[in-house]
Amino acid sequence: MTQGKKKPTAARWRHYNFTTAGPVDDYLYSMLPKREEVLAEMEDYATQHNVPIVGPAVARVLQQLAMMIDARTVFELGSAIGYSTIWWAQAVGEKGRVVYTDGDRKNAERARGYFARAGVANRITIHTGDALEFLSEQKAEFDIIFNDVDKEDYPRVLRLISPRLRKGGLFITDNVLWSGRVAEKNPTDASTKAILEFNRKLYDSKDFYTTILPIRDGLAVALKK
Ligand SMILES: C[S@@+](CC[C@H](N)C(=O)[O-])C[C@H]1O[C@@H](n2cnc3c(N)ncnc32)[C@H](O)[C@@H]1O
């Protein structure tokens, strides 16, 4: 740098507010192929009834990650009406297995109907009750563990997963940017604080190699070493 010239405050390779800006987001969604009827209906149902599903852009990333490591088994914490579950079930193939978990029986009933219509019911085990408790009872190792439960539980989930995930497996977590609240100066809200603790510990963990993909609400992808 020439002397006397002001040092730039922002790194040149940064793209502030670029990926999450509205028109770019619209563009990303416009690139997605049309979903099959059941998934499209679930997206409409989620919109009408405020069910917080990952949506098709993130779901496509989930499916791609599963394809990249040739995943056959997925444990999902927090499945709601089973939207992300169906994307996982399609990714693991006919011989694969996906564990659906949700605390709400009505969600599970609705999900069961969608699984049958999507032709993937035989790949999915439905568990209603506490997802963390059920995960801690698992003896087998999974290829992927997907975390989408209440945000205050994220640090507790992190303490549970390592023995239940195979080496080279993926621990994936949604909403880790929490609508940008992770960047607040002094957050007071319990969910934001839990996510901040979770993200810090996940990045610092010697067991995982982690990246947050800033797609939608932030997706943390952690590879088990
Ligand atoms: C964000 S939604 C899941 C959406 C789903 N992964 C999708 O994208 O289609 C979170 C769900 O987790 C469930 N949930 C939250 N905490 C839970 C827990 N500890 N055990 C089981 N289910 C839980 C809620 O009932 C809710 O339906």
Outline the structure in words.
It contains eight helices and seven strands, in the order αααβαβαβαβαβαββ. It is an alpha/beta fold. A seven-stranded mixed β-sheet has the order 3-2-1-4-5-7-6, sandwiched between helices. The chain starts with 21 loop residues before the first helix and ends with a strand. The relative contact order is 0.12. Bound molecules: S-adenosylmethionine (SAM). S-adenosylmethionine is lined by residues 52-54, 78-80, 83-84, 101-104, 107, 130-132, 148-150, 153.
pLDDT < 50 runs, ≥5 residues = none
Give the structural class. alpha/beta
Average residue pLDDT: 94
Largest sheet: 7 strands, mixed
| Beta-strand residue percentage | 15-25%
Strand order of the largest sheet: 3-2-1-4-5-7-6
The helix fraction, in percent, is 25-40%
Report the radius of gyration as a whole number of Å: 19 Å
The molecules bound to the chains, other than polymers, are: S-adenosylmethionine
C-alpha end-to-end distance: 40 Å
What's the number of extended β-strand segments? 7
Question: What is the general shape?
Answer: globular
* Order of helix and strand elements from N to C terminus: HHHEHEHEHEHEHEE
Short description:
This protein has eight helices and seven strands. The chain is α/β, with parallel strands linked by helices and 225 residues long.
